[in-house]
Specification:
The protein is α/β, with parallel strands linked by helices. 40% of the residues lie in helices and 14% in strands.
């Protein structure tokens, strides 16, 4: 869709059509809503002024980029948003040449822009190409954004940064005077005047420079841009992020300045869908919903693992005032909102700052508190150095509660919780364990509360996999629980949600199987594994985690160290590849991880059924 020739009226009509298309598809498929509705005019203005086939369009997180997808040849395909083999919910270069970079985690965009600007300079393309970055005010709470701004201000590469402020969290302008000054600063007259003044003042030495600088700073003290100006980056704003005429004029100015510029645009979350307009966290990411009423289409069912965690931690916090906790900008998603409401002085949302969350909790642990650092598995990757250097090196009793471990479905590659076992198992002083159902989760939290060393437990998005199994017994360090015992020689080993997957697979088999709830992958229950090795020669591992460095790997290392032979081990963990997006059952089927598929894979490994290539794929 080439919108270069569109007039203002046509562009405004296009924005309305885009919002309708987004609402139509997201209400059916689920996805990110309020932020992408709010960014529509910004994106259309970007495409009007710049060229995404040559100018790097870099969207921070990129959950707000649906309008970008719709104007770059994906209008019809948008029906498949977040479905298996369909359009990704984030930017993805393999999907379109207009998508510059894979994005899904916060605060990487300005660094990418700086890198792109360096490449453009090295290629001699300055003036022909320019990076255009869109970053939300929430993403500006992470330190990486300021690391990039620090270098950008020093090197002065031409770059346009659009700060999409939909919460007024950077700074509030002070009344009508501020708005007037900001509009004036965005005008061609002001920019031309500033350049001429700088040239004029150069002829009058340091004294004139000092006076001019002080006058400019006095003017800017009543605008929100002084932080960026002090870092050496031109600031324009705040501007109305829904006024296409102003946005296009402002972007044209910024494009021609030949220096780094931040345009501070204020937008309304959920713009165009009245039910979602404003600061309603629940409309950030949604499941399918009814467009007329806004009510969720999802039927209530069993408690999610996150709800169980909230209940367990609330009970613990009530009993023990040393229990504290933090999350990184995901209080609702991690279930910490009720804790923050009940104990606002003990539970904190530290914004998009996983590194800070981990290290601050380590200090609380040193001071005698019991911190629960509650972060999605995929986001804890961002705080890995702090887990090693600030927590485990000091052997401090921080509990890492890792939500969304395993397949998370429609968010895809950037969000699948595949790697936490692999990257945490290598860290000295770290203990790793996992619950399998509601009761064992309460028991796991109880164990974590009294454990005096660093530990991490993982649990899935949504519900635990249901299975009829013996009741969970209390957690003891490094102890597993044998749930089903047989003399068949076949042993299923489940870890966390993998226990339910193993049990469901057993129900599909015409064979007796022993089932072990491993519980701890570090330390392993050596005594139990040695005993089971004398009775079972075929071991199958079930865990929603990466195979490389995962549960099967840990067990094989143990067998090798103990010189235990005669055991054949097959792991049904994830292969060495990033996992695509789609509804969780569809993704599991594509990976061969549905119970009926796993049963056929077990039979094939045992030689009791001819392997089906479609099942083993």
């Amino acid at each position: 869709m080439n919108i270069k020739s569109y007039d203002l009226e046509q562009l405004e009509a296009l924005c309305s059509n885009i919002r309708n298309r987004i609402l139509e598809v997201v209400s059916r498929n689920g996805g990110h809503l309020s932020s992408t509705l709010g960014a529509t005019e910004l994106i259309i203005a970007m495409h009007k002024v710049f060229d995404s086939t040559k100018d790097p369009f870099i969207y921070d997180v990129s959950h707000q980029s649906y309008a970008h997808k719709l104007v770059t040849g994906r209008w019809e395909a948008f029906d498949t948003l977040r479905q298996l083999d369909g359009i990704c919910g984030y930017t993805k270069p393999t999907e379109s040449e207009h998508d510059y970079f894979v994005a899904g985690h916060s605060s990487t965009s300005i660094s990418l822009g700086v890198g792109a600007a360096k490449a453009i300079a090295l290629k001699g393309e300055v003036g022909k190409r320019i990076p255009v970055v869109m970053i939300g005010d929430g993403s500006m709470s992470a330190g990486m954004a300021y690391e990039a701004l620090n270098e950008l201000g020093e090197r002065k590469y031409p770059m346009v940064i659009i700060l999409n402020d939909n919460e007024m969290s950077i700074a509030k302008p002070i009344g009508a005077l501020s708005r007037m000054l900001s509009s004036a600063m965005a005008s061609p007259f002001y920019q031309k005047f500033k350049k001429r003044t700088e040239s004029f003042v150069d002829n009058f030495g340091e004294g004139a420079h000092y006076i001019a600088k002080r006058a400019e700073e006095a003017l800017k003290l009543i605008t929100p841009g002084i932080l960026f100006e002090e870092m050496g980056i031109e600031y324009i704003g705040p501007v109305d992020g829904h006024d296409l005429k102003v946005l296009i004029e402002t972007l044209e100015i910024a494009k021609n300045l030949g220096k780094p510029v931040i345009i501070h645009a204020q937008t309304l979350k959920g713009k165009g869908y009245e039910i979602a307009e404003g600061q309603h966290e629940k409309w950030h990411g949604v499941g399918p919903f009814d467009l007329e009423s806004g009510s969720s289409s999802k039927k209530s069912g069993a408690k999610s693992a996150t709800q169980i965690y909230t209940e367990a931690l609330l009970h613990l916090a009530k009993e023990n005032d040393k229990v504290v906790g933090a999350t990184a900008a995901m209080p609702s998603g991690t279930g910490l909102t009720p804790l923050m409401e009940a104990y606002p002085d003990r539970f904190w949302d530290v914004a998009i700052a996983e590194q800070h969350a981990v290290t601050s909790m380590a200090a609380l642990a040193k001071e005698g508190f019991k911190p629960f650092c509650t972060i999605y598995s995929t986001f804890l990757q961002r705080g890995y150095d702090q887990v090693i250097h600030d927590t485990c090196l000091m052997d401090l009793p921080v509990v890492f509660a890792m939500d969304r471990a395993g397949i998370v479905g429609e968010d895809g590659e950037t969000h699948q919780g595949a790697f936490d076992i692999s990257f945490l198992r290598a860290v000295p002083n770290m203990t790793l364990f996992a619950p399998r159902d509601e009761k064992s989760f309460h028991q796991a939290i109880g164990f974590a509360a009294q454990y005096d060393r660093p530990c991490a437990l993982r649990y899935p998005r949504g519900n635990f996999l249901e299975a009829e199994l013996p009741e969970s017994t209390p957690f003891e360090l490094g102890k597993s629980q044998l749930l089903v015992s047989s003399e068949s020689g076949i042993l299923f080993i489940g870890y966390g949600n993998g226990v339910g997957r193993a049990a469901q697979t057993m129900a599909e088999l015409d064979a007796e199987v022993s089932l072990l709830d491993l519980r701890f992958v570090k330390p392993l229950d050596g005594a139990m594994l040695r005993r089971l090795a004398t009775r079972h020669s075929k071991w199958f591992v079930f865990s929603d985690s990466a195979k490389m460095g995962g549960v099967g790997s840990a067990i094989l290392e143990f067998l090798a160290e103990e010189k235990i032979g005669g055991v054949e081990l097959v792991s049904f963990e994830f292969d060495d590849a990033f996992i695509t997006h789609g509804k969780t059952p569809d993704v599991e089927h594509a990976l061969g991880l549905r119970p009926e598929q796993l049963a056929r894979r077990v039979e094939a490994a045992l030689g009791t059924e001819k392997a089906d290539a479609t099942v083993l794929a």
